[in-house]
Amino acid sequence: MAITRIMLLQLFLTATTFAQVILASSDPTFTLPKFTSSDKYFGQSDPDIKVDKVNVTDNFGLESKFTWKDVIDSLSDKEKLFFIQRHGEGWHNVAPSNFSSDDWNCYWMEQPGRDGVIWEDAELTPNGIQQIENLAKQVNDTENLPWPEKFYVSPLRRTLQTWELTWKVLNEEKNVDQAPLVKEFARETYGIDSESKRHNKTYITENYPFATFEANFTELDELWKPDARERSQHRKYRAAQLLSDIFDDAGDAKVISIVTHSGLIGSLLDVVGHRSYPMATGSLIPVIIHRKPKKTKTYTMDKPDKTYSDVCPNPPSSISGAPSDYTTIAE
Question: CA end-to-end span of the chain, whole Å?
Fold first, then answer.
């Protein structure tokens, strides 16, 4: 029965959007393959090493008693080494510091930007660009680092920029011809705030011509809504579906790169049983992920999307800097 539900869901996903699948289903449970992760090789994964004591500057956390060859040689045919990368600092990361929390949550985060600073589908700040250039240098300088065989990226601008400044540059230097596959499910938590709304496919194609798209990637953003926000249980399911898709698409490839966002990274780590590990903008974590061939996990999605009143429970009577005739989404 579980396999049948998986097959039906995957077929349904080719014809409609994720949100529509969830809303249309009378059964709020969905079953996917079970994933686990190894805690053997990397400090980030080792429960005996405190998070703030992990040496991320040396071999991206690879413990000194191991080599990258040890890691690759250890991988079974059901395992892959993932380089999970968070985008560099974007304008949406710095903009909230200019507002009170009420002003931001109840008005400004729903706007495209202010005073020439655009945080809708935000691009990288100059600091974010520098973060990624530094990371690319670290990648390039890490001796014997296994090179990704498959690349995946979120459709938002900050992740596409990050991939371009990291892997496009390094691939060209190494004469490697590899393009990233844009995956809709690799995006950040979506809805209400403008930073989580992606541009259309035509815009992405014109501005990031290196990108390729998964099948059925829609022209318009059909997930983002101005009055509904994805909940964490939805995002966790989406992370598991993304992993399943990547394992299927990557085939025998052992080393996978994915450029994504902090919220989705948290869900990915949770899905594979990795300990919680905070990631700063412009950072990368290596994780060995195992897809269990005969085990499944059930995800329950019985909660409705968050509404504007969830993110702004007490709208203020006035918003600093807003037009005098401003209204809240709730109104």
Answer: 45
Catalytic residue numbers, as ranges: 87, 188
DSSP state of 46: -
Distance CA 290, CA 77 (A): 9
| pLDDT tens sequence across 56-99 | 999 999 999 999 999 999 999 999 999 999 999 999 999 999 99
Q: Are 200 and 220 in contact (CB under 8 A)?
A: yes
Q: Which residues contact 88 (CB under 8 A, 6 or more apart)?
A: 124, 125, 127, 128, 129, 130, 131, 132, 135, 158, 161, 162, 165, 281, 282
pLDDT band at 2 (very low <50, low <70, confident <90, very high): very low
| Average pLDDT of the chain, as a whole number | 92
In angstroms, the CA 274 to CA 16 distance is: 31
Q: What is the DSSP string of 49-117?
A: S-GGG---TTGGGB-TT--HHHHHHH--TTEEEEEEEEPPPBHHHHGGGGS-HHHHHHTGGGSSEETTE
Q: Which residue has the tokens 């060209």?
A: 172
Report all structural domains of the chain as residue ranges with CATH numbers, in order of start.
2-311 (3.40.50.1240)
What's the pLDDT at 328? Answer: 60
CA distance 85 to 159: 9
The angle, 0 to 180 degrees and rounded to 10, between the axes of the packed helices 232-250 and 262-271 is 70
